[in-house]
Specification:
It is a single chain. 48% of the residues are buried. Helix 5 links the parallel strand 3 and strand 4. The protein is built from 14 helices and 13 strands. The protein has a 7-stranded mixed β-sheet, with helices on both faces. Strands 9-10-13-12 form a 4-stranded antiparallel β-sheet. The chain has a two-stranded parallel sheet with strand order 1-11. It is globular. The N and C termini lie far apart (52 Å). Helix 4 runs parallel beside helix 5, helix 12 packs parallel to helix 14 and helix 13 crosses helix 14. With 404 residues, it is an alpha/beta fold.
């Protein structure tokens, strides 16, 4: 008898439900002719957002130089543009040697953890988290320790909880700010407390800042690297969200802080980067234009801008519902919404998401997909226009009315 080919045991604890069974079911329904409103992924291009034209032109003009492999860290103009951005933010100890360009932030998360972790090493990851972080830790032999970011604390990290989780095997702490999925933007005192903790316990700070300029109202984005001086900090960002260029697959990772202590770590990243030769070269030619040009995202997140107005529509519909509640998102492009306690024991996030898809043709991401200990939240992207947002919430209300 032929034996089935089994997958690696390393995949047993790996989850990425954002593109999991529900998304597959939505695809099946679309093939049968149903029109699905897919709010499970923050993919600006699917909702009519365009990459700035100047970035497209920069790629086209440099296609002739994009055919060979480039340096494993990336082309120099792209890395130098990242350095200039860091210096403009007050991070002065960075050169192009400390910048790595990758096939999106996703690849760099994997490389940075692979270069750092030994089997059994622990990494502190927020709950809720962007599940790629937990998955990448697991796949690279590490152990995830989730620290609490509760709704009662506006989804800000609980510093005391982080402190309790630190052990002699803890190597790093992940900070996602502005946060996906909650939309929280961390204040200075919270970030400073994390820096103190990292310095005291000799932790590497992994700062996921892919939504760095996407903040609303009076929220202030504070780059983690401006606060980390006596520890090692890796800052992750890219073109996907702020510049609406997900398909270009261009991200970067910047080492800063105590660079002398990071020398061996940087060398490990260089080795892993060389093994994959280089990242997508054409997209890298858009980086300098993106970072040095007009920052159109600022208009989108200001009152009257499309991202701002869509977010406002979500806030208003949640506030007006007797079945939903939620902390207004202050950053990123998501809302993390709670089902009313009356549904507890009768309708959890997975069952709600499935029924909403099957009967109302709206795809959302269950909150437990983001490694939460509770199952009464769901995440939507705030990228659709206000008309679509209102249509979605009409369908959500209709779905929940049947269970109320």
């Amino acid at each position: 008898m032929e034996q089935h080919i089994h997958t690696s045991e390393a995949l047993q604890d790996v989850r990425y439900e954002i593109r999991g069974q529900l998304a597959n079911r939505a695809l099946e329904m679309e093939k049968r002719g149903y029109e699905i409103i897919s709010l499970n992924i923050g993919n600006p291009g699917l909702f009519g957002f365009r990459t700035p034209e100047t970035m497209r032109l920069a790629m086209i003009e440099n296609l002739g130089q994009a055919e060979p492999y480039c340096h494993q860290k990336g082309i120099f103009p792209a890395r130098e543009a990242v350095v200039m951005q860091q210096q403009n933010r007050g991070i002065l100890d960075v050169s192009a040697d400390e910048v790595f360009i990758g096939n999106g932030v996703s690849e760099l998360i994997d490389l940075s953890l692979r270069a750092l972790l030994n089997p059994g090493d622990e990494v502190l990851v927020p709950s809720p988290d962007y599940p790629l972080w937990s998955a990448a830790v697991t796949l690279n032999g590490g152990i995830v320790r989730h620290y609490t970011c509760s709704v009662t604390n506006r989804f800000l990290p609980d510093i005391e909880d982080i402190e309790r989780l630190v052990s002699d095997r803890t190597r790093a702490i992940v900070v996602i700010n502005p946060n996906n999925p909650s939309g929280a933007v961390y204040d200075r005192s919270t970030l400073e407390a994390i820096c103190v903790l990292a310095r005291r316990h000799n932790l590497v700070v992994l700062a996921d800042e892919i939504y760095d300029q996407m903040v609303y109202d009076d929220a202030e984005f504070i780059p983690m690297a401006t606060l980390v001086h006596d520890a090692v900090c890796l800052t992750f960002s890219g073109l996907s969200k702020i510049y609406r260029a997900c398909g270009y697959r261009v991200g970067w990772c910047v080492f800063s802080g105590d660079l002398e202590r990071a020398a061996e770590y940087i060398h490990g990243m260089e080795l892993l980067s060389a093994l994959r030769l280089c990242s997508n070269v054409p997209g890298q030619w858009a980086v300098q234009t993106a970072l040095g040009g007009f920052q159109s995202v600022l208009d989108l997140v200001s009152p009257g801008g499309r991202l701002y107005q869509s977010r406002q529509a979500v806030i208003e519909r949640v506030a007006g519902s007797s079945y939903l509640s939620g902390e207004p998102p202050m950053g990123a492009m998501y809302a993390f919404i709670r089902l009313d306690p009356r549904f507890e024991g009768r309708l959890d996030d997975q069952a709600f998401a499935l029924e909403l898809l099957e009967n109302h043709h709206v795809l959302v991401a269950p909150g437990s997909s983001f490694n939460t200990p509770y199952s009464d939240h769901f995440r939507i992207t705030t990228l659709p226009d206000t008309e679509t947002i209102n249509l979605v919430f009409d369908r959500i209300e209709s779905c929940l009315e049947q269970h109320a």
